[in-house]
Amino acid sequence: MGGRVTRVFRNFNVENRASREISKEKPTPAPRHRTARLDTVADSLEIKEEVLRKDDRFLALLKDVYVESRDPPVQVKHGGGQHLPSKQEEKRLTKLGHLEALDVKKVPKGKISLVEALTLLNNHQLQPQIWTAEKIAAEYSLELKEVNSLLEFFIPFAVLQFPKETKKAITSHKPKQLT
């Protein structure tokens, strides 16, 4: 809708405006410097011959030049290996149920994936007698201290449903009517 309105205003009196712009006097360009016109100089035969002529003295000097380059020997800095892993990290396959597509397949030992963390926290919350910290540490190749910290400080979300009496109390309240 807005495009139609703008098109009407844009096309209004187009021919008169175009003819007015065409009939305006054109500004004269600034004068050019003498050296800016190289096209007349480039046409001269003397310059073309000078460019294409080979100078024997310069060719002889160029043939005498011989360049030999050698890279300096590579020096290994001592103490730089602290940041490099000394051996390949051991990986373990993840223990996933129906959420395999959402998570990584291999995790380094001593670590767990996000889906595994949520699964073990949920299992511990639902059945703390079966899923103890020792069993979780053995099952997921974790340290017992880390598992205890995980179970103490992280709690999975729980869905709480309010009783129906609370809903009635909230809905039975009548708003004040303005008179």
Automatic annotation (TrEMBL):
GO terms for cellular component: mitochondrion
Ranges that cross the membrane:
none
A Gene Ontology biological process noted in the UniProt record is: mitochondrial respiratory chain complex I assembly
| Cited InterPro entries | NDUFAF4
Hey, which family's this protein in?
Answer: Belongs to the NDUFAF4 family.
Q: Cross-referenced PANTHER family, in alphabetical order? A: NADH DEHYDROGENASE [UBIQUINONE] 1 ALPHA SUBCOMPLEX ASSEMBLY FACTOR 4, UPF0240 PROTEIN
Give the quaternary structure.
Answer: Binds calmodulin. Interacts with NDUFAF3.
State what protein this is by name: NADH dehydrogenase [ubiquinone] 1 alpha subcomplex assembly factor 4
Q: What is the lineage of its organism?
A: Eukaryota, Metazoa, Chordata, Craniata, Vertebrata
